[in-house]
Amino acid sequence: MENMKPKMMQKNFFTPTVIGLTILAINGLIFLLIRFVWGIGAVTNLDNQHPWGIWIGIDVAAGVALAAGGFTTAALGHIMHKDQYHSIIRPALLTAMLGYTFVALSVMIDLGRYYYIWHPLIMWNGSSVLFEVGMCVMIYVMVLYIEFLPIVTERFIGRVNLPGFLKKLNKPVDKFLRVLDRGLEKTMFVFIIAGVVLSCLHQSSLGTLMVIAGPKMHPLWQTPVLPLLFLLSAISVGFPMVIMESVITSKSFGLKPETNILADLSNIIAPLLGVYLAFKIGDMVIRQTFTYLTEINTSSVMFTLELLIGIIIPLRLFLSNEIKKSPTGMAIASFLVVLGVLMNRINNFLVAYNPPYAQHSYFPSIGEISVTIGFVALEILLFRFFVINFPIVSVPVYSTPQTKFAIRGGSK
Amino acid sequence: MLNQSRRDFLKTSTLITSATLGLNSKSKAASKYVLSEDRMGVLVDTTVCIGCRKCEWACKVAHNLPTEPIDTYDDRSVFKEKRRPNDKALTVVNEYPNDFTDKFPIDVKVQCMHCDKPACLSACIVGAFSKHENGAVFWDSTKCIGCRYCMVACPFQIPAFEFEKALKPDIKKCDFCYKDRTFKGKLPACVEICPVEAITYGRREDLIKAAREKIKMYPNRYVNRIFGEYEVGGTSWLYLASKDFEKLDFPKLGKDPAPGVSEAIQHGIFAYFVPPVALYALLGGIMWINKNKKSKEQEQDK
Ligand code: SF4
Ligand code: SF4
Ligand code: SF4
């Protein structure tokens, strides 16, 4: 039988695309430098009416949602024990790990007093939703790093090769890694479940965040079930994200796309999207907010687009069997879901937010956009780096090695 | 109609949310400060205010903010634009046309309302705000991390942020002259300087009584409403006006405290950590069952 095994990709790091991404990343970092030297006001279009911009709306809120692939695949692969999905867990885990790292970074650059970022650890406010989100995200980042550790040990066990005088340490380090690996293997389930619980908590609480803004938020979005909607949308965007990234990875490393696994995943997406849609429409009907859709303005247009492009069209696509035969088709449908959730987060945090005394509306500055794009570029670059240097992406192997480290240990 | 059903829905779904998520733990909701019976307040009578803006000047002086000399405040051209309190001025006066006579425009002093159930206090990630016995809502610079969530939360859009500062940017808002004055029993700077006694400092309850009396005595002079008596659960600052408050740029707000819904959800999700722990146990159980199933299947395969 054909077996899938994670391997390091044999590729050069640099390609024209990579160079383009590097330029974008550097551009973002330059604006970031300005932010740290001259303050947030120097780079952003934020003011007292618009305290939060795209660094929160996109980098943090959408960033957290789009990293949901990590916990949804962990739930599917580890908790439901659907073994056929094991090959997608590692790429999803890597995306989540990088995603959350950048969420944390984005919070940091947006904080006026970033050097006090540790304050919530000792100054608690149980009634603050932001406090809860912050704590959960902080712990979850740690959990993600721990979940990733076995990949690091797998990469280095039997191959520790320190330069120069550190050579003497090769043996002890190797030994340490083996002990660590064994320990992790026994306890990993604790972290995996914790990761899923933490994700459910902060994905939903991210929705509660805007509830306190009350009437400042457009009634199309302002609802006490926001936490539920956020959780449902996060769950339904997890697998599309995995599909998209799997298809793109296969393309850029010249591998055969895993059409079967992806098609199986696609089958799960339609019902998830359906539930999300049902709650979104139900909420609209119960609160009678559809009346706001009869007037044409930014809010009603954005709401309709979000619903149509982000949920209804991809739902229809995922219900068709044709789509599931082509990786490109699935990637496109997935992209729509991702776009929809991205729009939803932007809508909730920025479009829906109508401050009472605003003289003008908020639009992100060049600096804000540059930093956001720069961070995305950096994330993709790091993803590529990890995929090349660590066993992340699974490729078919025909002889099935039974013992975990035997082959690699011996070959070096 | 629409509003009514929406409010009902808001209430029921909050209940449902907290009930489904675990226990309905009203007990824990925001009990960190006790509202003193004798808390103070300020009554602003906008029909008396002459728009001299002396209070703006006194406020700046009291808070060590840079200011022009006091006589420049006679310049009434600033009223052409509507201004908001910001990091450089914690209170501002705006002027509105009087529908009956051009001679007496309506002047409205704006500053933090010192809510009884402050949204800023509930929202702040590190608990930098505190509600004091005399009613003051005070911001603590040593805690704040500059996340600006308080600005998102405040229903009056009051907290201002020093966007221009790269290091130690502050949240700026009226502090009821807490540290230097009201805490020591002195008047707030603006109240002290006001030449016509348009603003009165006193026990909030007494002020409400006085305001009611005024409305009763001069029913033609005032609209029958004290803004701040019930809005978002009540505020320390109270307003009387001759015109609809909404036309004077007061926000349209309900009687429910601003942090109410979000705190109910929050405490529902975290009711004594029962729901998260239950979820953990549930997932652990599912994992265990599936694992056993798998190993049994494998044994049968052999
Ligand atoms: S008006 Fe705003 S800043 Fe002032 S106490 Fe109320 S919520 Fe806080
Ligand atoms: S900006 Fe400061 S005071 Fe406002 S919520 Fe954040 S930490 Fe609290
Ligand atoms: S000092 Fe008194 S009269 Fe003058 S603007 Fe202020 S509140 Fe009005």
Tag the structure with descriptive keywords.
heterodimer, A: 412 residues, mainly alpha, Formate dehydrogenase/DMSO reductase fold, two-stranded antiparallel ribbon, 14 helices, disordered C terminus, B: 302 residues, alpha+beta, Alpha-Beta Plaits, 2 domains, 8 helices, 9 strands, binds iron/sulfur cluster
Number of helices of chain A: 14
- In the CATH hierarchy, the architecture of chain A is Up-down Bundle
Distance between the termini of chain A: 27 Å
Shape of chain A: globular
Q: Report the count of strand segments of chain A.
A: 2
Remind me, CATH topology of the largest domain in chain B? Alpha-Beta Plaits
Helix content of chain A: 55-70%
Unreliable runs of chain B, pLDDT <50, ≥5 residues? 1-31
Number of domains of chain B: 2
Describe the model:
The complex is a heterodimer of chains A (412) and B (302). Chain A has 412 residues and is mainly alpha-helical. Chain A has a single domain (9-356, 367-394), classed as Formate dehydrogenase/DMSO reductase fold (Up-down Bundle). Chain A is built from 14 helices and 2 strands, in the order βαααααααααααααβα. In chain A, strands 1-2 form a two-stranded antiparallel ribbon. The longest helix of chain A has 39 residues, at 170-208. Chain A is globular, with a radius of gyration of 22 Å. Chain B has helices spanning 2-21, 54-62, 119-123, 149-153, 189-193, 204-217, 260-269, 274-301; strands at 40-45, 92-96, 106-110, 129-131, 137-139, 160-161, 171-172, 199-203, 237-240. The longest helix of chain B is centred in the last third of the chain and has 28 residues, at 274-301. Helices cover 32% and strands 12% of the residues of chain B. Chain B has 2 domains: 2-28 and 275-301; 40-268, Alpha-Beta Plaits (2-Layer Sandwich), CATH 3.30.70. In chain B, 43% of the residues are buried. Mean pLDDT of chain B is 85; it is low at 1-31. Chain A: It comes from Stygiobacter electus. Chain A: One of its GO terms (cellular component) is plasma membrane. Chain A: Belongs to the NrfD family. Chain A: It holds the Pfam family NrfD.
